């Protein structure tokens, strides 16, 4: 490393004098963080549950959610680029919907990531049990949690490198699955259980809606959780070089990523295994290679999806502690949570989040069934994600009313404007209503309002102290 690079590296790792996070992530970092956030445990593990409920209509479930998600991200992107002083979408919500809304969103988003990290780490334990089935789930779960907390104490540029390689492994895994599937379909491979690999397995009788519309609608909960993290682009905006160029590029590639990483991979899985043979409590990515008669390859893919879950958890730890840092910077959380380490990491926020996540992991001592814990926790996360996306859309509608000049001068306008934002908001309300149809999701839906009521009264109590 020459003298110039040493100086640049040192400057990038140090916090600015005013205690703000630096823009040290490059384009390749933000692109891969965007992919890493969008491809996670919900796809690699949860898609098996959705397929068992929705059959091949799972493809439609992911397509519908992905369609509306693109507009949510475009709305967020337009607002972020309208004022580069916004460090995240939480700042946008506080600015356009008021201090109380920003307070509730920020703490709720922190909780959503804390809960999502717990779900991801729980699934890591499940993947580990593929090799060592007698190992108690809590052991690999707690080991992974401590490892991630250690990684996140390092400089943000190192986090970017770690997430870059984690996300790259995900991409390789999905490409490998697609190539293998196309080969098996091309030779009409017959699996040991008698299923002939063919695209016709997607449209055969009683495949599209095997459990009727109730099964189709039930798939939306886990699918929403699968996309949780896409808005991480907004949180990373505070630490991104050249956001005017990199953020639009990351957001505009969302449809392509959904088509390749979600739709095409699910088509391949159903074509090879057939929806009826996809187990609800296991990863269909691993099962594909087992059913194809490649147990060694299944072990490799299991390792890959294990690193994928770890990557998603890593993104969650990063995002959660940055949200707490932003809260402290706006006097909506104890000032101690805004303390930066010598490498520019909000270390106290990281430790606080880590302790809360470790407490949540104790569920594995009470309920040793990995999938049951995953469904329970992912439902809470899905509710919080729907709330987050809804607040972004409401902020966009307010932004169009309060700052028409900024919209006029924007070079990254949201397609469809307020009309599309309103339609997307109605869709999110519809999905929220779907959670009341199933008993395992209904409980979380009825309990979560207590969280928002709690935040409302906490803010009201401290409103004289809290300053935007």
TrEMBL record:
GO biological process, one term: amino acid transport
Pfam families reported for this sequence: AA_permease
Stretches that traverse the bilayer: 32-51, 57-77, 109-131, 137-155, 167-189, 209-233, 254-276, 288-306, 345-367, 373-397, 418-437, 443-459
Gene Ontology CC: plasma membrane
InterPro entries with a match to the protein in the record: AA-permease/SLC12A_dom
Annotated Amino acid permease/ SLC12A domain residues: 29-460
Stated name of the protein: Amino acid transporter
Keyword Transport (UniProt): yes
Compartments reported by the entry: Cell membrane
Membrane topology label: Multi-pass membrane protein
Major place of residence: membrane
Keywords: Amino-acid transport, Cell membrane, Membrane, Plasmid, Transmembrane, Transmembrane helix, Transport
């Amino acid at each position: 490393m020459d003298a110039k690079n040493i100086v640049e590296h040192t400057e990038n790792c140090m916090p600015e004098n005013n205690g703000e996070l630096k823009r040290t992530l490059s384009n390749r970092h933000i692109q891969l963080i965007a992919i890493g956030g969008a491809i996670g445990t919900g796809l690699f593990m949860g898609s098996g549950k959705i397929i068992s409920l929705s059959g091949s209509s799972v493809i439609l479930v992911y397509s519908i959610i992905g369609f509306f998600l693109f507009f949510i991200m475009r709305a967020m992107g337009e607002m972020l680029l309208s004022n580069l002083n916004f460090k995240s979408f939480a700042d946008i919500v506080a600015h356009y919907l008021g201090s109380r809304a920003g307070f509730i969103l920020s703490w709720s988003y922190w909780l959503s990531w804390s809960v999502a990290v717990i779900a991801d780490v729980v699934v890591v334990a499940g993947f580990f049990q593929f090799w060592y089935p007698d190992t108690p789930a809590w052991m690999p779960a707690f080991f992974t949690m401590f490892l991630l907390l250690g990684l996140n104490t390092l400089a943000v540029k190192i986090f970017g490198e770690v997430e870059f390689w984690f996300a790259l492994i995900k991409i390789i895994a999905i490409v490998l699955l697609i190539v293998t599937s196309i080969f098996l379909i091309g030779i009409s491979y017959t699996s040991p259980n008698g299923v002939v690999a063919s695209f016709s397995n997607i449209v055969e009788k009683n495949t599209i809606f095997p459990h009727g519309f109730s099964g189709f609608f039930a798939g939306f909960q886990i699918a929403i959780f699968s996309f949780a993290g896409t808005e991480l682009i907004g949180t990373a905006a505070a630490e991104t070089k050249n956001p005017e160029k990199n953020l639009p590029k990351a957001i505009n590639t969302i449809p392509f990523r959904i088509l390749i990483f979600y739709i095409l991979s699910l088509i391949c899985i159903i074509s090879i295994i057939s929806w009826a043979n996809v187990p609800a409590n296991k990863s269909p990515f691993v099962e594909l290679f087992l059913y194809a008669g490649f147990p060694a390859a299944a072990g490799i893919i299991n390792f890959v999806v294990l690193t994928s879950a770890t990557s998603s958890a890593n993104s969650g730890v990063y995002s959660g502690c940055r949200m707490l840092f932003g809260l402290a910077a706006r006097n909506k959380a104890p000032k101690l949570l805004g303390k930066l380490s010598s490498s520019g990491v909000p270390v106290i926020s990281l430790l606080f989040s880590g302790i809360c996540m470790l407490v949540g992991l104790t569920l594995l001592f009470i309920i040793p069934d990995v999938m049951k814990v995953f469904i329970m926790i992912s439902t809470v996360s899905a509710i919080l994600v729907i709330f987050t996306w809804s607040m972004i859309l409401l902020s966009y509608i307010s932004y169009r009313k309060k700052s028409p000049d900024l919209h006029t001068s924007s070079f990254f306008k949201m397609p469809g404007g307020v009309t599309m934002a309103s339609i997307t908001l109605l869709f999110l309300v519809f999905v929220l209503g779907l959670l009341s149809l199933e008993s395992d999701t209904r409980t979380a839906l009825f309990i979560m309002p207590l969280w928002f009521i709690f935040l409302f009264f906490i803010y009201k109590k401290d409103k004289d102290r809290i300053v935007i």
